[in-house]
Design a protein that fits this description.
Number of strands: 20
CATH topology of the largest domain: Nitrilase/N-carbamoyl-D-aminoacid amidohydrolase
Largest sheet: 7 strands, mixed
Distance between the termini: 61 Å
Helix content: 25-40%
Number of domains: 2
Low-confidence stretches: 91-105, 107-111, 281-293
CATH class of the largest domain: Alpha Beta
Strand order of the largest sheet: 13-12-9-8-7-6-15
CATH superfamily of the largest domain: Carbon-nitrogen hydrolase
Mean pLDDT: 88
Amino acid sequence: MSVIRVGLAQINPIVGDLDGNVEQIRSVIDQAESMGCDLVALPELAITGYPPEDLLLRPSFIRDTRAALDRVVASTRRAVVVVGFPEAPDTGSHAATTHAEAVAGDSHAAIANLYNSAAVCVDGRLVGTYRKRALPNYSVFDEQRYFVPGVEPLSLFAVGGTVLGVSICEDAWSQDGPIAELGRAGASLIVNINASPYNAGKADARAQMLAERAREAGAAIAYVNQVGGQDELIFDGDSMVVDAAGEVIARVPQFREGLHVVDIELPETAETSVLQLLDCSVATSSSAGVSHPSLPELEPIGIAPRLSVEEEVWEALVLGTRDFVRKNGFSDVVIGLSGGIDSALVAAVAVDALGAEHVHGVLMPSRYSSDHSISDAVALAENLGIEHRTIAIEDAHVALMDMLEPSFSGHAIGLAEENLQSRIRAVILMGLSNAFGWMLLNTGNKSESSVGYSTLYGDSAGGYAVIKDVSKLLVYRLCRLRNERGGRELIPETVLTKPPSAELRPDQRDDQSLPPYEELDPILALYVEGDQSAEEIIAAGHDAAVVERIVRLVDLAEYKRRQSPPGPRVTSKGFGKDRRLPIVNRYRR
């Protein structure tokens, strides 16, 4: 038997930050060398960050990416490093010029010049590459816009007494695909590098899929995934090692950066001639008489326990908010505190993400605001330890109503007056944002956004919509989770128990405009995330009149959602990058 020491580099790259990403990778390589790693696996497209999207259409970006890879290669020493990058067939300037000409003339020709690849390097040398074969083009993925699949014979790499195969992300989801082929060719360990976005429930699906691939290949799989937030996408890491029998033998905690090292015991592999075998000239820690007496014994990384759905979503929201704010150059955020549950949840997430000193709350009462809403908002701010201020909107409301009165005269203005209050609040919040450089966090949830229960240019405004993909019922569960974690009532119980209301008219409640959320949310899940028709939802037992009304509201609100800020995707189908429907659309079924 042979033992190979593998470093799973669960890093957080930033799209387009080539220098910063190279420094992260170099730091990981140095750490792995000091810990005696034989192999270091880094995520898919780690050089560029994922997804680089249309940056890949820029010849200069491809050239600079190759230069960045060269710097990584030069920093490698004893440990074999597997790292993802976009590869042009000829990485010189001529290829980049050809790529530019192809873009100008034919986008499909441009795609033909680029691969999603993994570089295998050691001792300052690039010893081989693997080109991703299965390119996802569904859900949030759009890889066929940029890449073509690899078609060359797969390569195997000798790492001491181990024969190593390399694959990339979607390759692992293909039954009898590249991983099975590598196993048949003699690989005893297959590295699978990933940029696999999070959604609730995906972790279990991943583990099941990897178990199937490992058994299919008869080989262990070292799966590494990036961590961090990128626009709407959240990457949860969840890196792991699965043995040839499909058993998880090591799993890294989700949503946590770091290099995680594991010793994997593998059978000595006979020389293979089926595929090209590239010798990396590396002896593993326990083979060929090599030992590392100065290295401390490894603490087993163990198998990180699974989080509950609420815990996963909480960690995803915190990570997504932290990364979106900070990666975009902001340090502080501002939130409108209404005394309601949505703004309470967003404020709590922001505090966990950025620290209370970087979160600023604004109470903006109107003539319709209840006393308890104001007191609840103050109590929340004090419990969380955030700075807060009160700016009443009455003077602005009166002034604008007076200005509009000649035009409104003789018309029913109930809804217009309600929305005017929301838009005044947005102006105040954006004024503070501009004055102090604070990013405005939007507080709208998925249930409301689905049916258009928001004011365009009012409460739909913001730089980042923290709970954009969180249903109202899940909002309540997350608030209770945060109180449990805090060991006290951070979010006041009165916020959790009072009827939801926008408070834009006397005695207003959400259930005057919408079905109860216990009825609404299951219908929305079937229609928005399940892509079921109204007929199918009714057949499942939901009230026909309610279903038809909700489906119509969802369809009519598409133009509003298209103008909403980005927010973290935590379900199997979120609005924006994932669910993409035409705004002009008369299909009503």
